[in-house]
Design a protein that fits this description.
It is a single chain. The protein has one helix at residues 74-86; strands at residues 10-15, 18-26, 29-33, 39-47, 56-60, 69-71. The longest helix is centred in the C-terminal third of the chain and has 13 residues, at 74-86. It contains 1 helix and 6 strands. 13% of the residues lie in helices and 37% in strands. The protein is globular and about 35 Å long. It is mainly beta.
Length: 99
């Protein structure tokens, strides 16, 4: 899949033996949805052209307002949002290993 496919209204994204969806919400903004259409995060176009002359995208997980990951490989960014939603990192206790 190329970046131009994102310009369609919805792209099926097969991953981890399931079908996810990347739905266009506006210019440079997409929602990553699971099979029940629950939102797993946002994909945004950060720049129309990066160092490699390809668009640069960013991944915004739910609850965040800024990108946590950026790059030209939008499929890897979508996969990272899915992975984060399916396998959330363990909650931190805040004690940083102190007794």
């Amino acid at each position: 899949m190329s970046a131009s496919e994102l310009e369609m209204s919805s792209v099926r994204f097969p991953y981890r033996e399931r079908i996810f969806h990347v739905e266009k919400q506006g210019p440079g903004l997409w929602a990553v949805l699971d099979d029940s259409h629950a939102e797993l995060g946002k994909l945004v176009r950060v720049s129309p052209e990066g160092e490699e002359h390809e668009p640069v995208f960013g991944a915004i997980p739910p609850g965040f307002t800024e990108t946590l990951h950026e790059g030209s490989d939008w499929k890897m960014l979508v996969a990272s949002l899915i992975n984060e939603a399916l396998e959330p990192s363990p909650a931190t206790t805040g004690n940083q290993g102190e007794s």
